[in-house]
């Protein structure tokens, strides 16, 4: 037997192309299309890209349940590809993969990939993840290459939310607005429970275990239609109630000519809502696995 990991040429290379990914707006992990590695005893694999927190994300490699050996030794290299073709990680990792196992990599800075060095990693809002695999082989095999593509769903919503008879609202009262989207997002106008009565918007936590992630920019519009006060935030999850504070009610009523034409408080809302993966498929193999060939 020879250790193909000692060679510079991998037995298998997997390109995972993720489209519509200008930022990491994923409500949960994105699973790549599953792929078969005949050169590694017909084992089946997939990758998972997932958010760790607002600052970082991870990519993991998974071996699925298959007809291969109980444990397979693999050298692999998992990295994000620069648009010039070079790799963010040149280091090989060694791991013994049992069936239905996972191997995590080190956390990756979200800001580095999607903000600071975005022009180096993303082209046309497309991110490419590259997996290269080496292993123990009993015969000389032709290196194989697989291309897979996924597309993320991001819904952009811009709308005006007008709160009529604002001055008559009391502490404890709420006004709700359901955003027109394919995933549940609700906004609730309410007041803080202290003497200041801060005007706030609540994004209620999910009640049906459906995770949503979104960015927002919410503006209080003055009587001329211009910005009077603005709040923005990125990577908001609906795992629990979240609150966005604006101004105290007394100040708004005191300057009613500026804030409340006809006793109407107007918000201009811009939301980007991550709806998850809307397309995912293997596009091609250099050599189609035997199990997928037509007789």
From TrEMBL:
This is Speckle-type POZ protein. The lineage of its organism: Eukaryota, Metazoa, Ecdysozoa, Arthropoda, Chelicerata. The gene is spop_157. InterPro entries: TRAF-like (IPR008974).
């Amino acid at each position: 037997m020879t250790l193909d990991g000692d060679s510079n040429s991998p037995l298998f290379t997997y390109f995972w192309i993720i489209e519509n990914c200008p930022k990491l707006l994923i409500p949960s992990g994105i699973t790549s299309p599953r792929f078969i590695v005949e050169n590694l005893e017909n084992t089946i694999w997939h990758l998972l890209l997932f958010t760790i927190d607002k600052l970082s994300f991870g990519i993991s490699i998974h071996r699925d349940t298959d007809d291969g050996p109980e444990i397979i030794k693999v050298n692999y290299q998992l990295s994000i590809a620069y648009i010039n073709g070079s790799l963010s990680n040149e280091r090989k990792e060694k791991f013994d993969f049992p069936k239905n196992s996972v191997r995590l990599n080190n956390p990756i800075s979200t800001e580095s990939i999607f903000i600071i060095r975005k022009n180096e990693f993303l082209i046309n809002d497309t991110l490419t993840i590259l997996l290269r695999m080496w292993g123990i082989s009993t015969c000389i095999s032709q290196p194989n290459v697989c291309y897979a593509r996924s597309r993320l769903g991001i819904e952009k919503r811009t709308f005006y939310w007008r709160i009529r008879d604002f001055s008559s609202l009391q502490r404890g009262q709420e006004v709700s607005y359901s955003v027109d989207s394919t995933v549940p997002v609700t906004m609730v106008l309410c007041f803080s429970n202290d003497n200041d009565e801060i005007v706030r918007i609540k994004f209620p936590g999910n009640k049906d275990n459906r995770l949503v992630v979104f960015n927002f920019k919410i503006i209080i519009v003055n009587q001329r239609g211009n910005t009077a006060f603005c709040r923005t935030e990125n990577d908001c999850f609906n795992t629990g109630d979240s609150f966005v504070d604006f101004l105290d009610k007394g100040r708004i009523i005191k300057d009613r000519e500026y804030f409340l034409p006809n006793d109407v408080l107007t918000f201009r809302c811009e939301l980007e809502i991550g709806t998850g993966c809307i397309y995912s498929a293997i596009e091609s193999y250099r050599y189609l696995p035997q199990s997928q060939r037509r007789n």
